[in-house]
Design brief:
The structure holds 2 protein chains of 2 kinds. Chain A is mostly beta strands. Chain A has no helices and 9 strands. Helices cover 0% and strands 43% of the residues of chain A. Chain B starts with a strand and ends with a strand. At the A-B interface, strand 7 and strand 8 of A face strand 5 and strand 10 of B.
């Protein structure tokens, strides 16, 4: 059971937009703007897509965007493409001694 | 492009010590924090610990002081030892780099190494 809650799966058609939520508590997402999002293909290394809630690393498409409201962060992917099909997971700094907590991951299917 | 690669035994017996190495290529190990994270089958990710290239390790208290993390900057490697393992320690183990100046932002990861604890 993960500390941050994500939907197990989401789906969308090419060209559409989807949003993945990540719900935490007042000890993590609610109190800090240190939310990151990662993309992972099966058997591959995770790739950083969003950090500090809204920032995109160099080289990441501007189709990926992040936001936060209260204890819930969100990743939005616009103009869905076939190669967006992957697992996505969130993370957040936490005030507890575990330093960082993660979501359980969301499998994105592009129909 | 920085690359990380985990290496070590894929099978460890109960009560023994799990030992993994992370080799960093394409960049220096200096100036960064280096991270170990794991994912048990069917479960979420768990932070194991981190170390700066100069030392000063820190680890997850939930692992009950079984974790030792060390670094060899001359070889661009850092290491994980997890003692007294049980089946609950079976997981994919990842090493990662923390983005400079950004807490809990991991900008490069290894592909992961599956370690099974079984007799």
């Amino acid at each position: 059971q993960s500390a941050l809650t994500q939907p197990a799966s989401v789906s969308g058609s090419p060209g559409q937009s989807i949003t993945i939520s990540c719900t935490g508590t007042n000890s993590d997402i609610g109190i800090y703007n240190y939310v990151s999002w990662y993309q992972q293909y099966p058997g591959k290394a995770p790739k950083l897509m969003i950090y500090d809630v809204t920032n995109r690393p160099s080289g990441v498409s501007n189709r990926f965007s992040g936001s936060k409201s209260g204890n819930t962060a969100s990743l939005t992917i616009s103009g869905l493409q076939a190669d967006d099909e992957a697992d996505y997971f969130c993370s957040s700094y936490t005030t507890t001694s575990t330093y960082v907590v993660f979501g359980g991951g969301t499998k994105l299917t592009v129909l | 492009q920085v690359q990380l690669q985990e290496s070590g035994p894929g099978l460890v017996k109960p009560s023994e010590t799990l030992s993994l190495t992370c080799t960093v290529s394409g960049g220096s190990i200096s100036g960064y924090y280096w991270i170990w994270i794991r994912q048990p089958p069917g479960k979420g990710l768990e932070w194991i610990g981190y170390i700066h290239h100069t030392g000063s390790p820190n680890s997850n208290p939930s692992l009950n002081n079984r974790v030792t993390i060390s670094v060899d900057a001359s070889r661009n490697q850092f290491f994980l030892n997890l003692s007294s393992v049980t089946a609950a320690d079976t997981a994919v183990y990842y090493c990662a780099r923390e983005k400079s100046g950004s807490s809990t932002v991991f900008d490069f990861w290894g592909q992961g190494s599956l370690v099974t604890v079984s007799s």
